Amino acid sequence: MAKEGVEKAEETEQMIEKEAGKESAEGGGGGSHRLGDAQEMRVVVLAGFGGLNKLRVTRKAMPEPQDGELKIRVKACGLNFIDLMVRQGNIDNPPKTPLVPGFECSGIVEALGDNVKGYEIGDRVMAFVNYNAWAEVVCTPVEFVYKIPDDMSFSEAAAFPMNFVTAYMMLFEVANLREGMSVLVHSAGGGVGQAVAQLCSTIPNVTVFGTASTFKHEAIKDSVTHLFDRNADYVQEVKRISAEGVDIVLDCLCGDNTGKGLSLLKPLGTYILYGSSNMVTGETKSFFSFAKSWWQVEKVNPIKLYEENKVIAGFSLLNLLFKQGRAGLIRKVVDKLLGLYNQKKIKPVVDSLWALEEVKEAMQRIHDRGNIGKLILDVEKTPTPLVPDARTMPTRLPWTDDPTNVYWSSTSPETHPTRERERQTRSMD
Ligand SMILES: NC(=O)c1ccc[n+]([C@@H]2O[C@H](COP(=O)([O-])OP(=O)(O)OC[C@H]3O[C@@H](n4cnc5c(N)ncnc54)[C@H](OP(=O)(O)O)[C@@H]3O)[C@@H](O)[C@H]2O)c1
């Protein structure tokens, strides 16, 4: 484990050195560059499906906006669990590699393609992108772009669309959450989990049951009503508190959690499958985990659903947006969500910021279940120096118990409250 951490740090160091070398060769210092006639930009590239070593930061020709597209100078990008699954090739119909990953970003409009109305150069925006988000510049159709409030930071904006739209769609469009209902959500400390918890709190008297790794409980305990360890027998725990079960089960794990979730539904309750995190059991795709998860999924007979008055649903935001043409519906949802943000009823929880060159470490943090809220790739952040300076302190990697696994961080607790919060949370365990 310690060796793995050191190897990763060395890899990052090499990436930084490589980038620095390129920049000096090109006579630049950050931002975009001109090589020959083509303007270039920094991007994260996935060279092939597999482990973290398939990710690189490299330079690519900068895109220009096509008809109906906006060109965005990216400030921050969201890193989601689905990005790990894409990296592994653990998704249906994966696109060809090499590819630039990432489905959401925030930034400033830099150019408008033909027939784009309602936006101006200089607008602060957040956007969905069908891949290619992890870059200094992104072009995406206008229907996937949303202006952001003046007081919303770019990090918050990059943490907003995927998590809050997914949570909102499931709770209000699919399951029709109303006053007095109860909801079970897994990975309650994660990006979607925290968005679900916040949206539930906008409706009176909603009971939220959450599962999460125990070390997160202190940090997130106020966001949900009841919290259980992710390994606990949550069916028993929920039934002890609510014998009839719950109205809504949000399942991002799949496998045997499908049957457990269905067994917890009250009459007229809704079960929604929206992820398959259980398929990710290591750095690379595991056929065994895939088969196990598939095999364990409860095979449902519609006649049983009819007799028991239960609803089963599935939800995929990316398919809804990019394959099923529902951008108009999603825009209305984003408008409602921005209204809630302006009323200070919801606020993205940002776990930590990472430079593009730190993408492997950022992904490792999710693999290690270390995050509370969303990870952000901050395009303007320089990678954390790997040598100590006057302000640095040695810090145990917060997501490992190995005492030899130490890295040097130049981020003081004042400027990096998340890491300080983690240290406090860990020391309480
Ligand atoms: N269908 C859609 O439209 C849609 C949209 C967004 C996200 N999703 C799904 O929603 C889920 C959450 O997504 P997110 O982006 O917000 O991520 P996230 O919850 O922040 O993901 C990280 C957390 O997931 C938990 N986890 C569960 N299984 C894991 C595993 N095998 N490996 C590592 N961590 C695991 C860990 O928390 P604990 O240890 O505390 O449980 C971890 O900290 C994912 O399944 C994702 O695919 C679906």
UniProtKB/TrEMBL annotation:
The keyword Thylakoid does not apply. InterPro entries: ADH-like_N (IPR013154), ER (IPR020843), GroES-like_sf (IPR011032), NAD(P)-bd_dom_sf (IPR036291), Quin_OxRdtase/zeta-crystal_CS (IPR002364), SV-ATPase_mito-regulator (IPR052100). Residues 1-35, 402-429 are annotated as: Disordered. Residues 50-377 form the Enoyl reductase (ER) domain. Residues 402-415 have a biased composition (Polar residues). CDD domains: MDR3. Residues 1-25, 416-429 have a biased composition (Basic and acidic residues). Gene3D superfamilies: Medium-chain alcohol dehydrogenases, catalytic domain, NAD(P)-binding Rossmann-like Domain. The keyword Kinase does not apply. Keywords: NADP, Oxidoreductase. Belongs to the zinc-containing alcohol dehydrogenase family. Quinone oxidoreductase subfamily. This is Synaptic vesicle membrane protein VAT-1 homolog-like isoform X1. The gene is VAT1L.
